What we know:
114 residues; alpha+beta; Glutaredoxin; 4 strands; 42% helix; 13% strand
Amino acid sequence: xxxxxxxxxxxxxxxxxxxxxxxxxxxxxxxxxxxxxxxxxxxxxxxxxxxxxxxxxxxxxxxxxxxxxxxxxxxxxxxxxxxxxxxxxxxxxxxxxxxxxxxxxxxxxxxxxx
Length: 114
């Protein structure tokens, strides 16, 4: 099963979703901002991406700039912060068979769906 973590209000996420759906029409769409996302799911995604939690953070978001910029957080703290503030998560994220990629640009999804 292919899953895409998607924010319908984000242009890049919409482009990623459209691209993935042309290749995998049955892909499951998770609107993680509306539906919520657990710290455990974020931990799993980060492990599949092979990155540290901070690499998943959208540092251009106002919430980050006003509340988090310049502060030190452990990985565990980042999992909670991202779960409580899902707008901070880069997107779209495509997951398939234990592998994940941030599909920006959309063609990066090919790494896991082809």
